[in-house]
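PROTEIN DATA CARD
Card holder: Methyltransferase
Chain length: 488
Origin: Streptomyces boluensis
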Amino acid sequence: MTTQPLIAPTAVAALRDALTAHGYTREGIVTRVGIEAAQGLNRYDPTLTLQLLGKDDPLAVLIQLFMCGRAVPLDDVEPAVVPLLESTGDGAVRASVHLHPYDKWWAISDFPTFLRPDPQDRRADAVAPIGLDATLLRRATLTHRVASALDLGTGGGVQALHLSGQAERVTATDLSPRAARFAATTAALNGFDWEILQGDMAQPVAGRRFDLVVSNPPYAVGPGTVHSEHRDSGRPGDALCAELAGSAGELLTEGGHLQFRAHWVHRAGEDWRERVGGWIPQGAGLDAWIVQRSVTGVVPYVDQWLELSGGEEALGQREAWLRWFETQKIEAIGAGTVVVRRSGHRNTLVRVEELSPEAGELTGAQVAGWFTRRDWLRAHDPLAARYVPGQGLTLWQQADQRGGTGWELTRQVLKVPGDGLNWSERVTPLAVALLGGAGREATLGEQLTRIAEAEGADPERLAEAAMPEVTRLVERGALVPAELPEPG
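Structure generated from the sequence above:
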């Protein structure tokens, strides 16, 4: 049986009508308090909004209750809102949930701990409000139409809201019964009919497959103890993310994608790329693109999580967490996005790489473009193709002076900003020559033959040596097959 909302269907309908009637929407709040104050609310900072609200009209009451977390007199509240309120004594009430006008919807969660810092508001099963990782995951999610989609570890249902615009059927799961009820309330309030199931990871949907699976799981790297359900999975280290990646073969339809935010260990003496790449099962017909966006030292990593969780270092958690990192020889934590596709091919590819600090955040269009270029490489002979240069290429060259013999070229770095990821990679003179010849009538094979003849080299050996670099240039979008359609 699917999970039921926090309030009855008639109460949901009355609440929706009241929110709509009083303009409790993203646009309505911007109109009421201005763009700067509204942006503050989206960062969970109500300071400016509370200064601007003025008289207690119905919209102001809703904003104070559900966005600012403040108590108001019960007499100022209309009956349709009461089911989501709780008494604070002396005839006043406050919201029992955070009701966020998000995009064109409403999203239900708990308040962040810094808005509700009292001990009674800290609970292990708190449902996290919309955070940065939820936003980054949505930004990176593919947007093509699908028949079935799964939001695994849904929390309050934020990813499922977006999936409702592209999937015929949406399923959402969560280990927490409370989170499942929050998601059910989000769905009902927005008029969606999701299947919402309770259970750990993929267990509630065992034996079923989906075209698109997204997850913003409790990926915090730690000793495996659970203090906060939306943060801690109960698995030690990065085992949860490894488990999720390994489940792709059973979760996905042919051609389906799994996308999730992940944290992974950087351990002394170990290549993190090999570690994370090893999450993808061999022989399962799975392609994967794993992109690291940031790396955080263990001390700031722990402190950031504890701050978000309400300063639990007073309970001794900080010391235990850091001691565990030390015993495990963990030096830092990487963060990024994992994308797995069930391609069904035998010659699958797992690519693990790191973005430069100046890179933009990953987008669904970039994910689609990467897999499109990989499919092209799998289906074509790169030597027989013509190429055009990618957009906005920049070549940086470094030359060092060698005594009195003049300048010697020592380094060439290609920057590929065309798709917004700002790849920066050292390249060989051969790659520079091939990029210089892109956009002409010659095929890559013909270019390499001419270069070999000019240098007195063997054309076949030159082509063999060039292929790994050509592959990287095509993946990056620096060399674009002329037959590929324009993006977008």
